[in-house]
Design a protein that fits this description.
By secondary structure, the protein is mainly β. It contains two helices and six strands, in the order E-E-H-E-E-E-E-H. The chain is globular. The mean pLDDT is 96.
């Protein structure tokens, strides 16, 4: 059984199924997970907007689901996907393009 947090969400790490590159981190509620599994395209729950979000609906950069697994504690998911374009809202291929600086911590 999956372990959703107190808000009903679970972390979802998105990885390129071909290259292995980590593309983004999103959050899913049960409905987003159901829609992802039934449609084969990734859905998230937007914490800022408080609603379901079909990744790619506005950008065209859909994520085609290739595989999904849960971690050993059942509180995080790993989605292996085939991206249709850049995944980050900035236009970068991955959301993880910035190096952490010491100043980011202080």
């Amino acid at each position: 059984m999956l372990e959703f947090d107190e808000k009903g969400l679970i972390s979802a790490i998105v990885q390129d199924a071909t290259s292995g590159e980590v593309l983004m981190l999103g959050y899913m509620d049960r409905e987003a997970l159901r829609r992802t599994l039934s449609s084969g395209e990734v859905w998230f729950y937007s914490r800022s907007r408080g609603e379901l979000w079909h990744k790619g609906a506005t950008s065209g950069s859909f994520l085609k689901l290739r595989a999904i697994s849960k971690d050993c504690d059942s509180d995080a998911l790993l989605l292996k996907v085939e991206p249709a374009g850049p995944v980050c809202h900035t236009g970068n291929w991955s959301c993880f393009f910035q190096q952490l600086e010491k100043e980011d911590i202080d």
